[in-house]
């Protein structure tokens, strides 16, 4: 028979002491508490090092504190504090946001049609961005439209969208003969348009005969007055990223159609303010059936803005003519002779293309007088258009590209952008650029490891980086079928949006 078990012992000051069951339980409890505390500390450290870990968003109720920090995706940029108000609240200070009425399902605060009608119609000012003050802010969450369905996966979404998701049929009637869009229980986008009756794909092929769209020299484009963004949609297959924009007007939800299709787009209009992009941003600008309104001075301001956002050596494509001018000329406040002459000139060719000079080295003194005085060419948030030429960076020879030569895509994505290598971006060096890129490769890899939905091709198409810094987050997704809207807040200490465009990515300014 076995003898009595020897009780466990522990050492203190070199001597063995028996350990009671009570003391063992105490040690186990202490160990459990220590492990829990250690895990909690590790969790906090993890949250501090990765700023935007995936989370499940509850539907109702949503609770947030009254002062919330905007998502900060860059270790080198500062967070912005925004104060929210809510109609309900708990004793602990947590605010509860209820859903808005369904009539607000497509509410866009700064593009509210009712508020816009209060502004001047001259130069389409009423269609520009007009943001509400704090007293007019909605204190509820925007609901989805009735019957909203999960969008089609990319690339199927390029050609299809559920009617319930964008419940507007006006374009199917008004643009029926132009083959923009067809309606059933779902919308179909055949790729037609006013100036490409044979489809946007053939139209892009026609452009490719005049400009090489295959060698990587063209990566970013802007489409002014994009309709449902078919031009941008068909450029994607050529590895060209187009930023499409159109106003919120009688053609309801043009930009919403574009986003539903998975195509980059913003609500916007070329009116009295600069477009929300830096100078020298786009390799190519496009306008189909442009109807420039008003006087020659207004015309000049529009063209100067297109010139500002085009990179040196970039292209501006215009296809026309102004259709049915005889019916609408009175509303354009221009004479029959003026419009007839313009139409005759444009009709000589269906597509006209201009190339911007690579520098201003040969500009005569007379032309230099037409250039804008000292200014920040990248400033574009509520900045007035000017009827002067935005000067390019100085060069030392006729062959040099102002601002620096860009690499061809895709090498351009990871090459040090000229704005950084030239030292024009404060506190950003080639070393810090490389470090930021490597950091975001690791972060995005981590996101995919904790949420396998990110690894399902086509499940997600449109991503938003609210504080993009150097575009490292977007660059890390480049091999996935997604695109990222890179936002540089206007409050940021360093304006880096020009760097993002030099990498071959797209984005905009925004004040959160």
TrEMBL record:
Q: Could you give one GO CC term from the UniProt record?
A: endosome
Give the superkingdom in one word.
Answer: Eukaryota
> Single GO molecular-function term?
methyltransferase activity
Its localization reads:
Endomembrane system; Membrane
Q: How does it sit in the membrane?
A: Single-pass membrane protein; Single-pass type II membrane protein
**Transmembrane residues, as ranges?**
26-45
- Family statement drawn from the similarity comment of this UniProt entry: Belongs to the methyltransferase superfamily.
Query: Would you tell me the protein name for this molecule?
Result: Methyltransferase
Q: Which organism is it from?
A: Anisodus acutangulus
């Amino acid at each position: 028979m076995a003898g009595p078990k020897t009780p466990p012992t522990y050492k203190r000051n070199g001597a063995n002491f028996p350990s009671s069951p009570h003391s063992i339980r105490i040690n186990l409890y202490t160990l459990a508490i220590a492990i829990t505390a250690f895990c909690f500390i590790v969790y906090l450290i993890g949250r501090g090092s990765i700023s935007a870990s995936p989370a499940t968003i509850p539907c109702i109720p949503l609770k947030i504190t009254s002062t919330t920090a905007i998502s900060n995706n860059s270790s080198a940029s500062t967070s912005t504090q925004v104060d929210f108000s809510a109609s309900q609240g708990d004793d602990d200070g947590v605010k509860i946001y209820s859903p808005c009425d369904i009539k607000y399902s497509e509410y866009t605060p700064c593009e509210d049609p009712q508020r816009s009608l209060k502004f001047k119609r001259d130069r389409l000012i009423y269609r520009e961005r007009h943001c509400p003050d704090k007293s007019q802010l909605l204190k509820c969450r925007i609901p989805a439209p009735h019957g909203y369905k999960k969008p089609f996966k990319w690339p199927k979404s390029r050609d299809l969208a559920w009617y319930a998701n964008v419940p507007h049929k006006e374009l199917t009637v008004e643009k029926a003969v132009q083959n923009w869009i067809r309606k059933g229980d779902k919308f179909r986008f055949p790729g037609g348009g006013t100036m490409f009756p044979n489809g946007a794909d053939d139209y892009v092929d026609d452009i490719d005969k005049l400009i090489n769209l295959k060698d990587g020299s063209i990566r970013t484009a802007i489409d002014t007055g994009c309709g449902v963004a078919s031009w941008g949609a068909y450029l994607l297959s050529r590895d060209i990223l187009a930023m499409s924009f159109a106003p919120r007007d009688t053609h309801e939800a043009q930009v919403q159609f574009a986003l539903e299709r998975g195509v980059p787009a913003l609500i916007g209009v070329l009116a009295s303010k600069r477009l929300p992009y830096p100078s020298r941003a786009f390799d190519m600008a496009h306008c189909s059936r442009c109807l420039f309104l008003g006087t020659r001075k207004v015309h000049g301001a529009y063209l100067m803005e297109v010139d500002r956002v085009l990179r040196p050596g970039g292209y501006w494509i215009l296809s026309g003519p102004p259709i049915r001018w005889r019916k609408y000329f009175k509303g354009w406040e221009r004479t029959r002779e003026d419009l007839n002459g313009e139409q005759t000139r444009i009709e000589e060719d269906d597509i006209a293309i201009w190339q911007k000079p690579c520098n201003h080295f040969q500009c005569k003194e007379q032309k230099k007088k037409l250039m804008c005085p000292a200014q920040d060419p990248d400033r574009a948030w509520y900045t007035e258009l000017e009827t002067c030429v935005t000067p390019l960076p100085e060069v030392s020879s006729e062959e040099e590209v102002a601002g620096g030569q860009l690499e061809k895509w895709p090498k351009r994505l990871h090459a040090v952008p000229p704005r950084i290598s030239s030292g024009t971006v404060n506190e950003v060096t080639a070393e810090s650029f490389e470090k930021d890129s490597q950091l975001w490769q690791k972060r995005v890899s981590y996101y995919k490891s904790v949420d396998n939905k990110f690894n399902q091709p086509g499940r997600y198409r449109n991503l938003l980086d609210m504080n993009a810094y150097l575009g490292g987050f977007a660059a890390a997704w480049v091999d996935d079928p997604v695109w990222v809207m890179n936002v540089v807040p206007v409050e940021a200490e360093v304006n880096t949006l020009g760097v993002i465009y030099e990498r071959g990515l797209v984005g905009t300014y925004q004040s959160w």
